[in-house]
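User: quick one, fold this
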Amino acid sequence: MEVQVTLAAEDKSDGLVSLTEWLRAERALQGRVRLQRQAPLQGELGGTFELISVVVGSGGVVTALVTSLQAWLNSRRTEQKIAVSVGDRSVEIVRNGSSPVAEAELLRLVKEVLDEQ
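Assistant:
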């Protein structure tokens, strides 16, 4: 199953690169994380980064993904908004700079999206 992670931010491309590197550093996610570009607009040489694709299968990989997302979000100083999607189901997580994201709540939301597939 493929999980897509998108980021809503002014510096979306930089944020996606940062998050991709963070996820790839997680042993359980190595080889499962791919950064995807959108098609270039007319006159552009290459498209910008659009989303992160993570292949998940077992529950351990999902837990590793959620743990890494939570740690990355909590390491950011500015507001971050990410969406985790599987097919047509999606959950959005917003973290402002001062309140941490609770891992248990994030895990519940992501598993809810995955279980409905």
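User: anything notable?
Assistant: The chain has a mean pLDDT of 82.
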